[in-house]
Amino acid sequence: MKKIVVFLLSLLMGTLAFGERIALIGAMDSEIELLKKDIKNIKSEKIGEIEYFQGKLEGKDIVLLKTGVGKVNAAIGANTVIREYKVDKIVFTGVAGAIDNSLNIADIVVSEDLVQHDVDLTAFGRPAGLIPGQETVEFKADEKLKKVAYDSAVKVLGKDKVKIGRIATGDQFIASKDKVNWIGKTFNASAVEMEGAVVAQVAKTYGVPFVVLRAMSDKADGSATMVYEEFEILAADNSAKIVKEMLKNM
Ligand code: ADE
């Protein structure tokens, strides 16, 4: 009897998982390229200025999109993919500037949580980063997705190159020692980028589980623009490879 119940439960869970659709989001071509080229039965649709690619990747139903850079683009893409495609999970993939000194170029940060470093109502005595109407500064990633992301990243790159940490988002490319130090100190963040916390906020609004993966393209200091240009593709590909590994385990 117990065996039959276990069998039926696993069948049911399999059916539920089978019906899932996963959104894969990047901001730039470099961040989605490696994923896009391997999608099977690809169909695309343009809504507004964003193209949404549907199909199968690693046997999973996915919708892939490039939002464009920055917070508003990220909000448009995340909102649309949730509302129009009814996705069950969101994985964001891309590059970031390293804040944590122990991170090297191409290393990965898996989001523990995310904050918006450019939100500032401190004039009203509110904590830096707190958006009116939200209870906390940070948006927490889904525990299960975080674990799959971490395990997949360790499998692809090795333990030394992967960290779980806080990711700070803002509408600025950070390329100054003072600014990166301020973001690190104020928010205790490991990496800085321009979209993740917005996707997190939209996902939270609709109760959709999410995780953000970022590979380090630079150190967000005075050398950031030059280093970024050299390592953008290497870093973006590292993150995308991990997303593919994740899909095998979701
Ligand atoms: N994405 C990659 N590097 C970045 C930086 N230094 N600042 C903001 N976003 C980034």
> How far apart are the termini?
29 Å
Strand content: 25-35%
| Ligand roster | adenine
Q: For this structure, what is the CATH homologous superfamily?
A: Nucleoside phosphorylase domain
Class by alpha and beta content: alpha/beta
Strand order of the largest sheet: 5-9-8-6-10
User: What string, H for helix and E for strand, traces the elements in order?
Assistant: HEHEEEHEEEHEHEHEH
**CATH third-tier fold name:** Rossmann fold
CATH C-level: Alpha Beta
Low-confidence runs: none
Helix content: 40-55%
**CA radius of gyration:** 18 Å
Fold and architecture overview:
By secondary structure, the protein is α/β, with parallel strands linked by helices. The protein has one domain: 3-Layer(aba) Sandwich (Rossmann fold), CATH 3.40.50. It is 41% helix and 28% strand. It is built from seven helices and ten strands. Strands 5-9-8-6-10 form a five-stranded mixed barrel, surrounded by five helices. Helix 5 links the parallel strand 8 and strand 9. Helix 2 runs parallel beside helix 7 and helix 3 packs parallel to helix 6. Adenine binds next to strand 5, strand 9, strand 10 and helix 7.
